[in-house]
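Researcher: Good morning. I'm working through a list of sequences from a screen, and I'd like to move beyond sequence-only analysis. For each chain I'm collecting a predicted structure so we can compare shapes side by side. This is the next one on the list. No need for commentary yet; just the structure.
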Amino acid sequence: MAVASGQLERLTESCRCCSLRYLCLPYGLSANDLDRLDALVIRDAELGSADSLFVQGDGLKAIYAIREGSMKRVVIDEDGFEQILGFHYPGDRVGLDGFAEQSHQCTAIALEPTSVCRIPIDRLDALVDQVPRLRQQLMRLMGQALSGKEQRLLTLGRKNSEGRITSLLLSLSRRLGRRGMPADRVPLTMKRVDIANFLSMRLETVSRVLTKL
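Model: Good morning. C-alpha cells for this chain:
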C-alpha cells in the first residue's frame, strides 16, 4: 500500500520513530499507549535564537521536549537578579517546573534555532488517568530534575573554578553521548557569560580556564 507524503512525514516525526524517545516522556510505554501519547503531541513550535518558549509567571499550558537545538532556563528574583538554572538539549523536557504552582517559575530561552514538541497539559492530564505508566514516567522525570539540582549544588560547593567548568563539560559530553551524538566534541551554544552565571563564577575566570583547558 502506498503511503502519502503527509502520512510519511507524520510517521517519521512520530514518538515511536523518534531516536530520542528513550530520553523523553514516551520511555517505557507500550506501543498502544505510545500511539495515544503521540496523538497529543504538537510539533509546531519553532524558535529563533533568543526567542522565549515560555516566560516566568506564565500559566502552565504545556510541557515541551526539545527535538533540535538547545535552550537555557533562567529565573529572575525579586531584586531583579538573573540566575541560569540549566542548559537543555534534544531529548530534554522543559516546563515541568510549572506543575507545583500551575505557572512557570522560570523562562526558557532558545540558544540557537530550536524546535520542540508540545504536549498540552489538559490533554495530558486526561491521558495520565488512563495510562498509569505515563504517570510513573512523569514522576521519574521530576525526580531527575531534583537530582540535577542537588548535583549542581555539590559542584558549586566543593569544586574550584577549573573543577566546575570541567564538570560542566563532562556532563554535556555524557548527555550528547546518550543522544547518539559525538561525545568528544562539546558545542558550547551558550555564551561564556552564561557559563559564568550558571557556575557562579567571574566571566574573566571562565575565559581563563577555558583557554587553559
